[in-house]
Amino acid sequence: MIYPLIYVFAMSLFQTNKLGGLIRFSGLTNFIAVMSDAEFWRVTGRTLLWTFLGVFVKMTVGMVIALLLNVKFRGRMVARMLFIAPWASSVPISVLLWSWVYTPQFGLLNHTLAALHIWNNPPVWLGTPIPAFISALWVDIWIGVPFMALVFLAGMQSIPEDLYESAYIDGVNSVQKYFYITLPGIRHIILIATLLSCLWTFNDFNAVYILTKGGPVTSTDILITSIYKNAFQWLHFSKASVMAVITFVILTAISVVYARYYFKGEQIS
Amino acid sequence: MNWRNRATPVAVVLTIFLLLVMLFPFFVMFSTMIKTSQEVYTIPPRWFPHQPTFGNFVTVWAQYQLITYFKSSAIIAIAATLVNTLLSIPAAYAIARLRFLGRRLALYIFLVVQMFSPVVVVIALFKTFGALHLLDTYLSLVLTNAVFTMAFSIWLMSGYFRTIPVEIEEAAFIDGATRGQTILRIIMPIAAPGLVTTMIYTFIYAWNEFLFALSFIQSQPKMPLTLGLYRFVGRWSSQWHLLSTAAFLAIIPVLVLFYVIQHRLVAGLAGGAVKE
Hints:
heterodimer; A: mainly alpha; MetI-like fold; 13 helices; 73% helix; B: mainly alpha; globular
């Protein structure tokens, strides 16, 4: 498991040939080349925005769905199964399906928005930079929400019910129940789920690549698609590896901050 | 008793609204899969075709060995789930409850695997499996999927274990239970929803995994469903009615399985274990 990672690090420090073989040690030259490229910074900024928005929306919507599904009502098993559907469906195929949904002339999304008078002049989703970014982000969110909802729900279900029972006897209202029992009860789960979600969202390749290939031009590229293009389309293995290493550093930083929170307070208990 | 949450009209309306939003592409899929190739491209597009047809199912079924793909996917996904579950439960328990040197380091190392997208490591993994003569085998995919989901399972399971009060376990120890018994009889039943979630996660990951399958598997009979579908979908670049049909056929087994697991496994594990 570790070998592939070491090889990536090695490639970032060497000049490489078109097959990814190491030719000559070149120290930090590759890093300097990448860092002085304005496009790289644009892509990095976009990736951070992408990750932040993606994880934030997934968490919020996932939490709302989990709370809804935690309520006892008829048909909630079916509702739960339906909410899982976007996640259960194969990612490359769902993304292709989305590209059909987004089609301007024949696609049912724009038709429905216009027909219901929600949005009379919807944009050409994948053809212009900002709508394309939003479209791809939405597909990433759409795939990620069910996971969040399911994980939160499972956490809520392992909170012992007598806690709620005694809270009820003490006359606690639902909002207080949520903030004093549910939320602290699933604190660890939330931390873990958001951390993993950060890593996955940051590295989500399929949504961007299949939907827009990073386009129009490079306006929707995030780091991972940029790495892929550099490595497999243009065979710039060193550049791709440098970006992979930088990705690794960013993600490690995020993880360390998270892990601090995760382990915080455990000595007391 | 009515200390449980009750469904309010607001909750019902919100649920339906969210379902409509989340299932939107599936409605499009249903609409498209019963259209003829002419009706796919009408302006304006219609939700309900004038001449609904089931011909697309016949076409997809006749042209592609879906059964073979299903079988491969099932073998890979079930094996990966088993390997993952068997390894991650003890690991997660150790991390949640036991104190040992390097515990945090172990958790970080599991995370490191998640920091590299499959896109980055696939070449090196390809070389590794080549050297081990494991290319084009189910085993290569079982191992890769089990390892790539391990971080998630361990982190999440340990999170669930930590929500369980230590007192419950201590009570079991006092009654003379060994640690193994405590895990099996006390911890697992309470953490059942969490266990099911991680198992479903691993299964879905392995079932839908694409990039590794694309890189490691060459022979047609061993191809999992995603790969098989994607290959012919690529051929039908603008045949959206066939794509929709294929997408529909691929998702059904997962949903059925999910439904069964929810009913059987949760009930089976949790039944009788926790006091009501």
